[in-house]
Design goal:
alpha/beta; Rossmann fold; 16 helices
Length: 387
């Protein structure tokens, strides 16, 4: 049986990969090897690897990358440690191919380790970057190290091919994230509102703002415009639900601004720690409109027919469905965009609009392609020629 290894570094990453893991588990011709990195075991992220095991998956290896990273004095030390740890795991597990998702620093380290051990890589969610931030450069690096590519739209497929990858190795299969939320029923709206402290008939606007690393301290001014917009009397009839970003880097600054704002709203606004994927899905589905600049909003909201006000240019080059209202980060423009999204005319307009990320059975298609892939299928890499 072919040994297929999936590496998951966060719970949300695992949730996205879960449909694929189930498909591999059901196929007697392949064998699933699962690796959980330190973020699954860190109390800082409020999750544990036990959640994964309780859902029927055996984790073959658990690393302690996060715990050791806290003792290191520099980013280079962290990179060196991660490379050694992934190298150890791959030599021990001996997978015939590994599956990676996304463009994080940890995923890039895993891709380098696999490449050094001559292990083919299948990459999910490639082609979504234009080299504007550090994460984008990691994503491009993972693409160039990978041998199979599974994109969520045709535009992203073309971008992977344009980077020099062979067209026959790049597949537009749709989004695993959409398959996940479509196949797992969400808990009821009343229960969700109770968990947030909202009442049954409360209408709310959901805010998920991720700091743009390329903007640096300018994120504070941008987010202050958002807060002033939400505090405007024209939106008084809506309660506010904030999803806090990760408590690192610029995220800490945004969290402080959210905390200060919610304290002064008399209970109108509620903030939650960085949400797990199921809670994030429910917030996007049940809100009247979403405001922010997160990729999750772009991908999930079209399936729920939720209006999204997309702030700034963090998602400038991403595929956007017709429920997305692009908006500069100025108070009056933000208020007008929110009012447009809340209008009955706009909601009627997007009611029957399809999602560009939905396709039949992405997990099964990915599994079938990987199952048939052989070492001899590896093609020599091409690189784009600059004129």
């Amino acid at each position: 049986m072919k040994n297929i290894c999936i590496i998951s570094e966060t719970l949300n990453n695992y949730q996205i990969l879960k449909p694929l893991m189930k498909e591999i588990q059901k196929d007697d011709s392949v064998y699933l090897t699962a690796v959980s990195t330190g973020k699954h075991q860190s109390s800082e992220f409020e999750i544990t690897y036990r959640r994964v095991e309780e859902e029927g998956f055996i984790i073959d290896e658990k690393t302690n990358i996060v715990f050791n990273a806290k003792k290191n004095s520099s980013q280079q030390d962290l990179v060196d440690f991660e490379q050694l740890e992934y190298d150890r795991l791959l030599k021990q597990l001996k997978p015939e191919i590994i599956i990676l998702s996304g463009n994080s620093h940890e995923t890039f380290c895993a891709a380098v380790a696999a490449s050094m051990n001559n292990i083919p890589i299948a990459h999910i969610q490639g082609g979504e970057s234009k080299l504007k931030t550090w994460d984008d450069s990691y994503g491009y690096g993972i693409t160039k190290l990978s041998h199979l590519h599974f994109t969520s739209t045709e535009k992203y497929r073309r971008q992977v091919i344009r980077s020099g990858e062979h067209a026959e190795t790049v597949f537009n299969v749709g989004s695993l994230l959409i398959e996940k939320i479509k196949t797992q029923p969400l808990r009821g709206k009343s229960l969700f509102l109770n968990e947030t402290g909202f009442k049954k008939n409360d209408k709310f606007i959901f805010i998920y703002f991720q700091p743009d690393v390329s903007k640096g301290s300018k994120n504070a001014h941008m987010f202050n415009e958002v807060l002033e917009s939400l505090d405007d009397g024209r939106l008084d009839s809506f309660r506010l639900l904030f999803n806090k970003p990760k408590a690192s880097g610029l995220g800490k600054m945004i969290i402080r601004m959210i905390d200060d704002f919610t304290l002064n709203t008399g209970g109108r606004a509620v903030s939650l720690p960085f949400m797990s994927l199921p809670d994030l899905s429910r917030a996007i589905k049940y809100c009247s409109a979403m405001v922010g600049n997160s990729s999750e909003g772009l991908v999930m909201a079209p399936s729920f027919k939720t209006p999204v006000v997309d702030l700034g240019d963090r998602q400038k080059d991403r595929v956007k469905a017709q429920n997305i209202i692009e908006c500069h980060s100025k108070k009056e423009e933000i208020i007008c965009a929110i009012q447009n999204g809340l209008s009955s005319d706009f909601k009627h307009f997007i009611k029957d609009k399809p999602s560009p990320f939905e396709q039949p059975s992405p997990a099964r298609r990915i599994k079938d392609i990987i199952r048939g892939f052989k070492q001899s299928d590896i093609r020599k890499k091409n690189f784009p020629v600059l004129n």
